[in-house]
Design a protein that fits this description.
The chain is mainly alpha-helical. Helices cover 55% and strands 4% of the residues. The chain has a two-stranded antiparallel ribbon. Helix 2 packs across helix 3 and helix 2 crosses helix 5.
Length: 100
Amino acid sequence: MKSIMLPAFFLCIAPVLPSTAMAADACEVVLCMYGKTTGNDGGKECSSAERSFFNIVKKNKHGFLPSHTADAREAFLLECASADPAIINQIIGKYGRLRG
């Protein structure tokens, strides 16, 4: 039942998502990244949101900082007040420390 409801939700919400030219807001990123986490692909509608998420990268003079990047990405996702913290933790656990 869950596997049918998530794609249906994406189809219903797709018309109200901003175009790829606009920066993705935190709630859109949560929605798209949760879909990616659960194995569903949001298609073109989610490419901007995924790009926004993976563009959050923290570095220092020695290179990429995975923990700082995960913290920054989590802080961004927490800007979506309606997002379940467990979902955000799941997203960060899977993609938080990956280099974009």
